[in-house]
Design goal:
This protein is mainly α. It has 2 domains: about 1-45, no CATH class; about 50-485, Amino acid/polyamine transporter I (Up-down Bundle). The chain is about 65% helix and about 10% strand. It has helices at about 1-5, 15-20, 25-30, 50-60, 70-75, 75-105, 110-120, 120-155, 170-185, 195-215, 275-280, 290-295, 305-330, 340-345, 350-385, 390-410, 415-445, 455-485, and strands at about 10-15, 30-35, 40-45, 225-240, 240-255. A 3-stranded mixed β-sheet has the order 1-2-3, with helices on one face. A two-stranded antiparallel ribbon has the order 4-5. Helix 7 packs across helix 17. The longest helix is centred in the N-terminal third of the chain and has 37 residues, at about 120-155.
């Protein structure tokens, strides 16, 4: 190690697994690794602090922000703020455990941490959880594009009915978006290259937040609502473990005023839906599969610097989540729907600003898919090709196969997305709470921290909290399935 630190050369010969995972000093020195037998380069491109914040923020930010106003209506402002603050703090602590375990052994791959902690079973558990969680997320994002994009185009064209044009066909549009936007971004060699698109994606969500705040001061309470001559309903997943009821209305004429005697915000509310908001908020900051890949590419990396990246990203998302929920709730109060933008459509389905916001949200969702795909590809490579050097053909093939399979699911088997609800309710608590805690307990040496030390006792309690969230989420999903309800459980 001392020899490496004193070397001024920019090129050494090394094993690929060391290049990728085991030598933080190589990454810190911006060294180019060349495999001794095949002379394949595995160059580390450094990502700036700001770009890393954008990438992690984009990984956190999901379409679940659209359902937070509904969550606030079922908890009240103060209870929602308390729960959101607690979850944000727990997410920062979870990332701290992950980074601390990573720093002890010099490994920056989630799967390899699992291997160091529990051998092959740990590696497989981490890899499978990341793969299933993120495939479920990508499937939900593409399903949103398939379902919402045609409606936005139709509203912009002010077409009362879908007359069958190809540009109003969701199946064609999701394939077109995948090929023209998602696939080229997913083929980037390094995650850091997506910093600019992540910044633009977050800008779209800032535009969404600005519109929500503006509409609060424009829409009166009670508000006037268009009446619908014909409506159709469909269930659109918000994440791999969430679904919301969306009202697609096409013909509007006679206005009527919504009878709303409750135009006063509630600070604290407990009802039959309050318990559902706990798992929704618990999964609001899912970004843990992306933390270590971003850490690997961070310029002049250190545990403290990556923790700052995580804290800033989580704080930015925390602020946006709370403001979007607050002003969305203060606009519609108890009339807010599970998908906020569809509540605005009840007032004016052809509102140009809201249509632009819906388009911006679709853009943000689209640009999130490549970020989510990177950890899946890395997990597959760690499981199937653990000792292989970087190869463009394999890199491209995995991305193409993944996106093809996900598009096939979205187009031909959309009902299978319900299965991803169960998967997400299982994998998300593992990735956020359970794995970081138990990896930390196993990896940090006992002579440094005993099992009865405060940090490890806290980590054990944290893992227990993850088990509790998993049981709650699975219970609510099963209750919804058995009762035919449509409550949202989940919320990235």
């Amino acid at each position: 190690t001392e020899n490496l630190m004193s070397i001024a050369s920019t090129q050494i010969t090394c094993n690929s697994s060391l290049c990728w995972c085991h030598l933080p000093y190589l990454i810190k020195m911006n060294i180019k690794c060349i495999h001794s037998s095949k002379l394949k380069e595995c160059r580390f491109w450094k990502t700036s602090f700001g770009m890393s914040v954008f990438n992690l923020g984009n990984a956190i930010m999901g379409s679940g922000i659209l359902g937070l106003a509904y969550a606030m209506s079922n908890t009240g402002i103060l209870l929602f703020l308390f729960l959101l603050t607690a979850v944000a703090a727990l997410s920062c602590y979870s990332i701290h455990l992950l980074l601390k375990a990573s720093g002890v052994v010099g490994i920056r791959a989630y799967e390899q941490l699992g291997f160091r902690a529990f051998g092959t079973p740990g590696k497989m558990a981490a890899g499978i959880s990341i793969t299933l969680q993120n495939i479920g997320a990508m499937s939900s994002y593409l399903f949103i594009i398939k379902s919402e994009f045609p409606l936005v185009i139709q509203a912009f064209l002010k077409a009362d009915t879908n007359s069958g044009e190809w540009y109003l066909n969701g199946n064609y549009l999701v394939v077109l978006v995948t090929i023209s936007v998602i696939l080229p971004l997913a083929l980037m060699k390094q995650l850091g290259y997506l910093g600019y698109t992540s910044g633009f994606s977050l800008s779209c969500m800032v535009f969404f937040l600005t519109a929500v705040i503006y509409k609060k001061f424009q829409i009166p309470c009670p508000f006037e609502e268009f009446s619908a001559n014909s409506t159709s309903h469909s269930v659109i997943p918000v994440h791999s473990n969430a679904s919301v009821l969306v009202d697609h209305a096409h013909h509007y004429d006679n206005r009527h005023v919504v009878d709303d005697a409750h135009c006063t915000p509630r600070m604290f509310t407990v009802n039959s839906q309050t318990a559902y908001t706990i798992p929704i908020l618990a999964f609001a900051f899912v970004c843990h599969p992306e933390v270590l890949p971003i850490y690997t590419e961070l310029r002049n990396p250190s545990q403290r610097k990556m923790q700052h990246v995580s804290n800033i990203s989580i704080f930015i998302m925390y602020s946006m989540y709370f403001l979007a929920a607050l002003f969305g709730y203060l606009t519609f109060f108890e009339n807010v729907e599970a998908e906020l933008l569809h509540t605005y459509s009840r007032i004016d389905p052809y509102d140009t600003l809201i249509l632009c916001v819906r388009l911006a949200v679709l853009t943000a969702v689209t640009l999130t898919v490549p970020i989510v795909l990177f950890p899946v590809r890395r997990a597959i490579q760690q499981i199937i090709f653990p000792n292989k050097t970087f190869n463009w053909i394999r890199h491209i093939a995995i991305a193409v196969i993944l996106l093809t399979c996900i598009n096939m699911l979205v187009i031909f088997a959309p009902n299978i997305l319900g299965i991803f609800g169960i998967i997400g309710a299982t994998s998300a608590p593992c990735l956020i709470f359970i794995f970081p805690a138990i990896f930390y307990i196993r990896i940090v040496p006992k002579d440094e921290e005993s099992l009865r030390s405060t940090p490890k006792v806290m980590a054990a309690c944290f893992a227990g909290l993850g088990v509790l969230f998993m049981i709650m989420s699975l219970s609510f999903i099963i209750i919804d399935w058995t009762t035919g309800g449509g409550s949202a459980v989940g919320g990235h």
